Every structure is written in C-alpha cells, then in structure tokens.
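Consider the tokenized backbone below.
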C-alpha cells in the first residue's frame, strides 16, 4: 500500500500569496522553512500550496503546522520541461507559542 501523507512544522518565510483563476477557484502559496541538524545542519525551504481555503492572520516568522500530500508539478519553461516538488496542503494552522509564566 502506498501512502502520501505529510505533516510539517516550520516557520513562515514569506507572506501568503493568493492567486485567483478564471474558473473561480484560487490557491494560496507560501514558503515554510524547516531546520534540521541531522545528518548535517541545514535549513530547507518547502513550497506549500492550499486550494480554495482562506488564509489570513499569518506573518513572516509564525510557526505553522501543515498537513497534506507531496506533489510534483511539471510545466514548460524557457529552458524546456521543468518540475517542482511541493506540499499540497489540506490544513494550515498557526501554532500559538505557549504563554510565559509571570512567576
């Protein structure tokens, strides 16, 4: 059995960008950064798209939870056929940082 399921927690790197289409549908694209220390220290930038779901109240640096699937898109560019991996989200939530104790 194949499973294509992604859960991603990272920081919002760019403001969400909405694109409207003539068909009446729309998508919102954003970039999420994810830090990793293994096998070596790096910062990955993951493109995320969500369809026909309003996104608001997110700012650069917010920690977000993304759930969805991985998709490879293909298109023709000036240099020939191109492709890109992205997360197609069905859920994007801003994670609220825990309140600091005043004690």
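A designed sequence for it:
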């Amino acid at each position: 059995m194949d499973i294509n399921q992604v859960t991603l927690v990272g920081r919002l790197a760019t403001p969400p960008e909405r694109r409207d289409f003539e068909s009446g549908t729309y998508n919102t694209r954003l970039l999420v950064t994810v830090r990793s220390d293994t096998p070596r220290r790096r910062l990955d930038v993951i493109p995320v798209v969500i369809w026909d779901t309003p996104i608001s109240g997110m700012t650069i640096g917010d920690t977000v939870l993304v759930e969805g699937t991985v998709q490879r898109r293909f298109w023709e560019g000036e240099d020939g056929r191109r492709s890109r991996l992205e997360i197609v989200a069905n859920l994007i939530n801003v994670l609220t940082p825990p309140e600091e104790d005043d004690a």
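The chain is about 0% helix and 60% strand.
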